[in-house]
Amino acid sequence: MAPLRFCANISWLFTELPDFSKRIYAAAAAGFQAVEAAWLYDCDLSELQRAREATGVEVVLINTPPGDVQAGDLGLGAVPGREAEFRQGLDLALDYARSLSCKRIHLMAGRVPVGSQRSTVARDMENTFIQNLRYAADVLSKEGMTGLIEPINSRITDPRYYLDSPHQAAAILEKVGRPNIKLQMDIFHCQIMDGNLSQNLQKYLPIIAHIQIAQVPDRNEPDSAGELNYSFLFSTLEKHGYQGYIGCEYKPLGQHLLKLFWKFRTNILAIVTFGFRFLQRRDWAGSANTPSRPRLQASANSQTVSIFDLFHSLSVQKIVPVNGAGWQL
Prior knowledge:
This protein is about 30% helix and about 20% strand. It is α/β, with parallel strands linked by helices.
């Protein structure tokens, strides 16, 4: 059974570091082999490239530009009359994706226009989205890339976001009919809109190319207090052979605290919390500012395990729990 693969969303994690290139170093130091991000377009692309090449961390997902954020935009893919701007944004996303060897781009749908009723504009927005997705599919296919669409819940997070359920997304993907346009399922949003997660994951797994996680309702670490049993959901994904990445898109509880170490208690993963201060780090591993090596007791095998050895070093590829399966950071 192949291990699940996790990537750090550096728009949400390591935010004590203002520079995204430094967040790539921090993610690598924490043991991640991959990162994702929303918008990197204000960053120095050459610095991002250097960070990726120095660490060997893969950039697996970026978003298309949101549009005019000050005017309330959050993507343009389904917004009628903004097709030219969508294509310009896609071109910019392609430039960054090529430079960072990123193979997935989230094609953001956008919001229902202010003053419009969702039911009134739904058909026009769907038609616009389908045409834009077909255009993007043709462009991305020449680059060997995949476009993703992500439902964002309209009950809590964004009442005006057009694409708000996996069922709506699946219906649109069927109409688009292109193999390189897939579903990006954020479990946080899916739980809020629909629930029935184990069945929905199984139903839509053939069209899912990326998953994101956070606890509900507060969008914190997967093992924080909330509605979801991620140990069960991860086991479900393993059982059904999910091969894509799982993006850690959550708000860490506590400054400089990240829950990055999964271990088994019996055959269920528990997440151990540890603190890791990155602000004092000026450069890559081995510097004079390298953090000390805190240790913890790993109850799964009754051996003392160094957090430094597991996460500060890139040599560890996976964590092997007692049942023999592997979960890969």
